Amino acid sequence: MSYKDRKVITIGIVSELTGLSERQIRYYEERKLIRPERTPGGTRKFSFADVEKLVQIANHMEDGLQTSEIRRMEQKALRKDKELRERMLRGQLNAAFPQRNK
């Protein structure tokens, strides 16, 4: 696991890093745009990747996008990434095991 994906940052630090209020960060979590982990005591823990994502979300919001639009954009990007990975894997398999004409 990359250091960017480790959930170790508290919401207060995320707020300082992003300039977002803790309330805004919680709102984005409620809208399913960000998914922090929770400690057994309920403390939210974020990763550096989450911080970057929150900055992108804030930029989209400043551009006038709604949270539902941002979520749709993310889902579309995830589908594209999945399709690309599948095509690359098929290409690798075809290169490793070429079809033979019979």
From TrEMBL:
KW Transcription (keyword) present: yes
One GO MF term attached to the UniProt entry: DNA-binding transcription factor activity
InterPro entries for the chain: DNA-bd_dom_put_sf, MerR-type_HTH_dom, MerR_fam
Organism: Aneurinibacillus danicus
Domain of life: Bacteria
Keyword field: DNA-binding, Repressor, Transcription, Transcription regulation
This protein's record includes keyword Repressor: yes
Protein name: HTH-type transcriptional regulator TnrA
Stretches assigned to the HTH merR-type domain: 8-76
